[in-house]
Specification:
The structure holds two protein chains of two kinds.
Chain A (H helix, E strand, L loop, with lengths): L4 E3 L10 E4 L3 E7 L5 H14 L4 H21 L8 E9 L2 E8 L26 H9 L2 E7 L2 E9 L11
Antiparallel strand pairs in A: 1-2, 2-3, 3-4, 4-5, 5-7, 6-7
Helix pairs in contact in A: 1-2, 2-3
Chain B lengths: L1 E7 L2 E10 L3 H12 L6 E12 L1 H16 L3 E5 L3 H10 L7 E2 L2 H5 L3
Parallel strand pairs in B: 2-3, 3-4, 4-5
Antiparallel strand pairs in B: 1-2
The chains are: A alpha+beta, B alpha/beta.
Chain lengths: ~170, ~110
Amino acid sequence: MPKQSWCKSSLINDPNYWQIMSKNSLHLSLTNNLSELDQLQSDLSRFGVNNGLNKKVIFQLTLVTEELFTNIITYGYEDAKEHRIIFSLSCEDNEVRIQVEDDALPFNLLEAQSPDFENGIEDRQIGGLGIHLTRKLMDEITYERKDNKNLITLRKKIDVLPEDDQQA
Amino acid sequence: MDIVTSKINEIVIVKISGRLDTNTAVDFENKLEEVSSSNSPNIVIDFADLEYICSSGLRVLIQAAKKLKQVDGKLVLCSMQDYIQEVFEISGFDTFLPIVSTIDNAMEQF
């Protein structure tokens, strides 16, 4: 049975926050509030280090996760209520998988328009930049709408440091 | 995120360290607003100690560059870690924002 730890948040006052971390997987439940970003970044960093991911990959995964989290919060809800956003990460067979589940409005990022890079600086469309970065940095993205939830799965092939070289 | 500013030869140097994320981007935007003006329209941003950036940070930079251009000024970025610079390249922002390796290179851009 892989060692699991059940953690309360040290960085936020969210009574509904939960986190389950074992060596190769991380599950996080966050509320739709930007104040939870620090916690998200901290958890991802720890997950990355535990799995021997290099600084660049940890950065890219954190970036993609933040972009998705921020987009869901900013555009996803028509009410002012609290919603849960669930992140599940796993690292197996030289691949990192991130799954994001939310109950926000239907949004398929695969169909979202990329920013128009033909225009000059004055006309550059600012929206959609996060989605563009996500698409470029991840190797595979799938989207599913199920039970009134958006489910996005992102995959990235990675080189893992040999066990001996991994930090504790 | 920490921001330290200095001035050399009428060029404002903004040294940013730590993380430029959706939350800290607001502070960064305010600081850039504070140090830039029609009297000081030339700014170098030193990224040597910046560990993280996301689209919010990129947006602040683009808006700042636009404003400075309107007062005949310029924004130059320098000393980025490779994975930070890659974000500018992927987003295509490196074609609009001059990015150089060192502070000395940056000062030569004006």
